[in-house]
């Protein structure tokens, strides 16, 4: 029992370690580790007269570039993981991701549209089209009062196809320079992050996550099945709808600011279940904490490992794909309702 | 049982899937604190009737009420406190522990997360079914018989007045069937009303207190309601040549023709 408590303590303390550590990491020469130590000395020394160095560049890098990016990476990672866990529970399938209902391709189309013709801010457009894609999938799948998982997934595939086709048209019509930024966007990256990205996304992300957190126990009931939920006092259609809306809200906002970070929302909930079991009362918090921390670590790598920035979506996809295939082979889970 | 109000009363209940009439003007009363068994051939509407009573299917004609209160007037959590339902198949996807599965029976009482009280009641439910030792095992790794007991414990944690069980013995071996039916009998003695759909008339007649016979969406009434194991009557229910052999004040039912 004590061992278990210590284990959870370490897991929850992880971000407290990784968040400040990430501030110290980056490719910039003017914000090297020794410079930061010097700056810390300057901050803690009450006598500021002996210093001749100008720390303004360092301050800008730390607080205008790195800090918002770190916070955003954490929020996005947490949002994708919590949403993934919620959707896996209601779909009763551990291989479901937040992109299942066409959200990513809708958002990509929205972003491309805005990058090509700038009729709306990129993030807003991505957010709106992400929501639109999910709404269409949902409306097509909804049949009277029934919410069948298979038809949701199928309509998600169709909607994804439609928006991918539309995206191709936009790419075809736009000039090469804009095309480059569209492709970059779809790869998922955080390198344009400033406080503005954080400002525009934290409210939908945190409200979605908070709703899912409130649903954490009901997710256990919904994960057992519709009949079981309904006859023990929980309306399964309403419950699923709440989860779907909350997850879509958080994910669309995350995708709008960070692009498509593939497979992340599928793998992290899996990992959390392996660590702490499927009980969402614990899993929801852990998904947020660990999902945030891991994406932050991945982003730390993506900005330091090579001379250029590797898009974060590329890394998660490359790491995630083999894990996904392994899980699919191993878990032997079909798509039945 | 005279004098007590029926636990469930069904009046003029009709139901159809699309154009197919599945139930046609049923009238029945289910006695409280009894094990009532519903018997009939496949497709006669047994499961549909059970699902209607459980509130899983909406009905337009007729009325179902529980000791006076109409099913339609009860919201989901009020229903959960009246009726517990166990469907035919249950496939678990995630490896929840037995304790966690049983705790979900408390949904009708829980706002955000279960309280200590709920966890305590779930623990008692495990004791009533004699499976406290399984509490920390994974539900997904249990045998069919154990899983069925867990689901019954889950229903008991729900603390309903009536249990509705759709073919609870189907996937159980012979001895587990006996154990389950004895358990259901014990529950009725502890003032629970149990309604079960069973396929095996022998098990039904050995353990049941009261019987509902269905054929083509209608009820069949036996000539002697106290002794429904009458040969001719059962042959009309099952459309099969059957022998009724008197046994222990009741009867064993075997086919007349046996190919060897």
How would you sum up this structure, described in words?
The complex is a heterodimer of chains A (337) and B (260). Chain A is mainly alpha-helical. Chain A has one domain (66-329): Orthogonal Bundle (ABC transporter involved in vitamin B12 uptake, BtuC). Chain A is built from 14 helices and no strands. Chain A is globular and about 75 Å long. Chain B is an alpha/beta fold. Chain B has eight helices and twelve strands. In chain B, helix 4 (116-128) crosses helix 5. The longest helix of chain B has 16 residues, at 174-189. Chain B is globular, with a radius of gyration of 19 Å. The chains are: A mainly alpha (337), B alpha/beta (260). The interface between A and B is medium-sized, with 29 and 35 residues.
Descriptive terms for the model:
heterodimer, A: 337 residues, mainly alpha, 14 helices, 0% strand, globular, B: 260 residues, alpha/beta, Rossmann fold, 6-stranded mixed sheet, 4-stranded antiparallel sheet, 8 helices, 12 strands
Short description:
The complex is a heterodimer of chains A (337) and B (260). Chain A is mostly helical and 337 residues long.
Fold blueprint:
The complex is a heterodimer of chains A (337) and B (260).
Chain A: H1 2-23, H2 33-44, H3 56-91, H4 103-117, H5 122-141, H6 149-173, H7 176-186, H8 195-214, H9 216-224, H10 226-231, H11 236-258, H12 264-276, H13 280-304, H14 312-331
Chain B: E1 8-17, E2 20-30, E3 35-40, H1 46-53, E4 61-66, E5 69-70, H2 76-82, E6 83-86, H3 98-103, H4 116-128, H5 144-157, E7 162-166, H6 174-189, E8 193-197, H7 201-207, E9 210-215, E10 218-220, H8 231-238, E11 242-247, E12 250-255
Parallel strand pairs in B: 3-8, 3-9, 6-7, 7-8
Antiparallel strand pairs in B: 1-2, 1-4, 4-5, 9-10, 11-12
Helix pairs in contact in B: 4-5
